UniProtKB/TrEMBL annotation:
Keywords: Membrane, Transmembrane, Transmembrane helix. The chain crosses the membrane at residues 22-46, 58-79. This is Pentapeptide repeat-containing protein.
Length: 322
């Protein structure tokens, strides 16, 4: 078994030799070869010329000479190869930088829809590419476009393209250096989830998940005066003056942050198995909004001495709908 574990152990990367090291190896091997040739010459002919003896000595050292010349050739070729690789990498970086500039230029042509689509597609290539620095810059440019064009409404023809590009980059673990703020005074405005940002604030409007839409909550999202429906949620300090309908509440409260806002309204929400964290005030009465518990009772976490009669705070149901 020990042998199997040893065989399955991942192998680390081989040490890499850079251009300057190959250059040093080539020079060193050339000098060593020159010294070896001089030494062999004196060893063979140092005691005068003797045809048979000198021939045997020459034949004896010839393989070593061939090996040394091969070593010099190998080091020199590797040095030249590293130079070519560096030049190719530099050309590739310059090409990606030009691609970033071209994408930004296309994205700025707001009067030309085709150019905007091309700009988003161009920047997405960089956002999911292998250059981490340029990927973040590409995400920043797309995020700036989203902030500038969709701050008060997501009813935009380029919304799906831009959000999808950022989501694909976020799936690789990349985060743009941007905080986005969406705000509206129109309650009919419906928001979509934006991934890949440091923070996204939704102020006003509504966000629908589950059967109602495709919105999924993320830890970096903040909500104020927003209506949320059909989602699985962890209620904490991120929500202020929000309304929830037909949501499944997984947790309520926060161990490390402030308590949830008191101005939260719940309607037909399922608190089955909800984990109430650090509840230290009077426990809310959720019965008014048809909020319920089905089979699995909630739990108290972080303040176990605090006891709750769940029937005085929730509708206890034998069926999730009645």
């Amino acid at each position: 078994m020990a042998g199997d574990k040893r065989e399955n152990k991942p192998v680390g990367d081989w040490p890499k030799i850079d251009e300057s090291q190959w250059y040093a190896f080539a020079i060193t091997s050339a000098i060593f070869t020159a010294i070896a040739i001089c030494g062999a010459f004196f060893w063979i002919f140092g005691d005068g010329f003797d045809g048979e003896t000198d021939l045997k000595k020459a034949q004896a050292v010839a393989p070593f000479g061939v090996a040394l010349f091969a070593l010099v050739t190998f080091c020199t070729a590797s040095w030249r190869g590293s130079i070519n690789t560096r030049q190719a990498d530099q050309a590739e970086r310059e090409g990606r930088a030009k691609l970033l500039q071209e994408g930004a230029k296309l994205l700025g042509q707001l009067d030309n829809p085709a150019h905007i689509s091309a700009g988003i597609a161009t920047l997405e290539i960089l956002a999911v590419g292998g250059d981490e620095r340029l990927a973040i810059q590409a995400m920043n440019l797309i995020a700036d476009f989203v902030q500038g064009q969709m701050a008060d409404s997501h009813d935009n023809q380029f919304r799906e393209e831009a959000f999808s590009a950022l989501a694909n980059a976020a799936a690789l673990g990349r985060i743009a250096k941007r905080s986005i703020r969406f705000k509206t005074n129109d309650p009919a405005t419906n928001w979509e989830a934006l991934a890949g940002m440091r923070r996204v604030s939704y102020i006003g409007g509504s966000a629908d998940g589950g059967f109602f839409g495709e919105f999924h909550d993320r830890a970096e999202f903040r909500y104020q005066d927003t209506k949320l429906s059909g989602m699985d949620l962890n209620i904490d300090y991120r929500f202020r003056n929000c309304e929830f309908s037909y949501c499944t509440i997984k947790t309520y409260g926060s161990k490390y942050g402030p308590s949830p806002s008191e101005n939260l309204k719940f309607d037909n929400c399922d608190f089955s198995g909800c984990d109430f964290i650090e509840i230290r005030k009077g426990f809310p009465d959720f019965r008014k909004g048809e909020n319920h518990v089905f089979k699995k009772m909630p739990t108290i976490n972080g303040n176990e001495d605090f006891s709750v009669d769940w029937g005085e705070h929730f509708q206890l149901r034998d069926h999730p709908f009645f």
